[in-house]
C-alpha cells in the first residue's frame, strides 16, 4: 500500500491555480473584454443636449470644413432677437436669428451676416452622432514590429510560379479583381445631442461682401471649360484601326451608327384636307359619271377609310343595275354639276346641250371607266 501511494504522489500534477501568471492573464483578458463592451455601447451622456441643425451655404460650409477652423476657436456669434417682454407668448412674433461672423482677415471674402430661417420648429426623433476609433486598436494598427533575423537562402535555379493572392473575386467574364485587405477597427459611437430645430442660413443681401460672392460665381461660370462631345466616326483611323480593336464589331457600338430612315413609311397615303379632297372628287365625277372605289383611290392616293368617309357625303353607291358597286354623285350634286356645265358653255359662246346630249356623254364616260 505504501509503494502505490508514493507512485501516485510522484505523478500528481500541479493545479492551474499554482501556475505562475495564469490568474493575471485571465484577469487582464476579462477586464479588456469588459472595457471594450463598455466602449462599444452607445454613449447617451449628451442625449439631453439640445442642438440646432442649420443648413449653410456651400462657400461657408467649405470654409468651416478646413482643419484650421476645427481647433475649438470662436468662428462667430448667434444673435437671437426676442419680441417685447409684456406680450403673451402665443401673440409674440417669432424670434429673429442671425449668424454674425468675426471680422477677421480669413473672412474678408465672405458675407459676415446671415439670416437663420427656422423652417421646422418641432423635430421628432432626430439626433446627431459622433464616432471615433478606439485608442487601443489605433495604437495596434500603427505599431511596427521588428523583423526577426532570417537565415540566408540559396537562390533557386528552377522557376516557380508565384502563388496567387488570397483575396480576389471573379466576374462573369472570367476576369479577376483583387480585393485589398482592410482591417476593421471598432469605433465608439456617442450621441452629440438631440435636434430641436431645423434651419437654413441665408446671407444678408446688403452685406458689403455679398456682391463679391455673386461676382465670383459669375466669373466661375466663364472660367470653367464646357465639356465637348467628339464623334468617333469623324476621326479617320479610329474605328477601323489595326492597333485598336474594331469598335463597330462590338455589340455595344450601335450608338456610333447613323440612324436609318424608316422606309416603311415611304409610299403611304397622306391625308389631304377635306375641302381639297372634295374638289378633286367633283373634278373626277365631272369627267366620268361612275367610279369604282379602287379607281378613286388610285386617282386621289388617299387612305381607303378616309376616302370612303368623304365620298359618302357627296356620292352614293349603286347596289343594283348595270352600274352596281360603282359610285355616282347624289341627285342634288348632279343638278349643281349640270348647271355649272351650262354656265361654262354659255360663257364660251356655245349652245347649251339638251338632256339627251348629257345621256350620251354619260354612256361614253361609263365605257371609259370600265376600260380603266
Automatic annotation (TrEMBL):
Domain TFIIF beta subunit N-terminal, by residue range, is: 48-204
Q: Which Gene3D superfamilies match?
A: Winged helix-like DNA-binding domain superfamily/Winged helix DNA-binding domain
What gene codes for this chain?
TFG2
* UniProt-recorded name of the protein: Transcription initiation factor IIF subunit beta
Domain (TFIIF beta subunit HTH): residue spans on this chain: 270-334
Name any one Pfam family assigned in the record: TFIIF_beta
Main localization is nucleus
Organism name: Komagataella pastoris (Yeast)
Alphabetized UniProt keyword annotations: DNA-binding, Nucleus, Transcription, Transcription regulation
Q: Which family does it belong to?
A: Belongs to the TFIIF beta subunit family.
Q: Which CDD domains match?
A: TFIIF_beta (cd07980)
Amino acid at each position: 500500500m505504501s509503494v502505490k501511494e508514493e507512485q501516485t504522489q510522484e505523478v500528481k500534477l500541479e493545479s492551474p491555480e499554482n501556475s505562475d501568471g495564469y490568474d493575471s492573464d485571465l484577469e487582464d483578458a476579462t477586464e479588456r473584454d469588459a472595457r471594450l463592451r463598455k466602449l462599444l455601447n452607445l454613449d447617451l451622456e449628451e442625449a439631453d443636449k439640445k442642438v440646432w441643425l442649420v443648413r449653410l451655404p456651400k462657400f461657408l460650409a467649405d470654409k468651416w470644413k478646413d482643419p484650421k477652423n476645427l481647433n475649438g476657436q470662436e468662428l462667430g456669434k448667434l444673435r437671437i432677437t426676442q419680441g417685447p417682454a409684456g406680450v403673451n407668448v402665443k401673440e409674440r412674433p417669432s424670434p429673429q436669428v442671425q449668424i454674425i461672423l468675426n471680422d477677421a482677415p480669413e473672412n474678408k471674402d465672405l458675407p459676415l451676416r446671415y439670416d437663420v430661417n427656422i423652417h421646422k420648429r418641432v423635430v421628432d426623433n432626430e439626433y446627431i452622432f459622433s464616432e471615433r476609433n478606439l485608442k487601443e486598436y489605433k495604437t495596434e494598427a500603427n505599431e511596427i514590429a521588428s523583423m526577426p533575423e532570417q537565415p540566408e537562402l540559396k537562390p533557386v535555379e528552377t522557376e516557380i510560379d508565384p502563388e496567387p493572392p488570397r483575396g480576389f473575386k471573379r466576374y462573369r467574364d472570367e476576369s479577376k479583381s483583387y480585393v485589398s485587405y482592410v482591417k476593421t477597427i471598432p469605433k465608439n459611437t456617442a450621441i452629440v445631442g438631440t435636434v430641436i430645430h431645423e434651419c437654413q442660413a441665408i446671407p444678408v443681401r446688403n452685406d458689403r461682401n455679398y456682391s463679391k460672392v455673386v461676382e465670383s460665381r459669375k466669373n466661375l461660370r466663364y472660367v470653367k471649360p464646357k465639356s465637348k462631345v467628339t464623334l468617333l466616326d469623324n476621326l479617320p483611323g479610329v474605328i477601323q484601326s489595326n492597333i485598336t480593336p474594331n469598335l463597330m464589331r462590338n455589340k455595344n457600338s450601335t450608338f456610333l451608327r447613323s440612324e436609318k430612315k424608316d422606309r416603311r413609311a415611304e409610299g403611304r397615303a397622306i391625308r389631304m384636307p377635306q375641302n381639297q379632297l372634295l374638289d378633286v372628287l367633283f373634278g373626277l365625277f365631272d369627267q366620268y359619271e361612275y367610279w369604282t372605289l379602287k379607281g378613286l383611290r388610285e386617282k386621289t392616293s388617299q387612305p381607303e377609310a378616309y376616302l370612303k368617309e368623304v365620298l359618302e357625303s357627296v356620292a352614293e353607291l349603286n347596289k343594283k343595275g348595270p352600274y352596281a358597286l360603282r359610285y355616282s354623285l347624289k341627285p342634288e350634286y348632279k343638278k349643281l354639276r349640270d348647271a355649272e356645265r351650262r354656265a361654262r358653255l354659255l360663257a364660251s359662246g356655245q349652245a347649251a346641250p339638251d338632256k339627251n346630249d348629257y345621256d350620251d356623254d354619260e354612256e361614253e364616260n361609263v365605257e371609259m371607266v370600265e376600260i380603266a
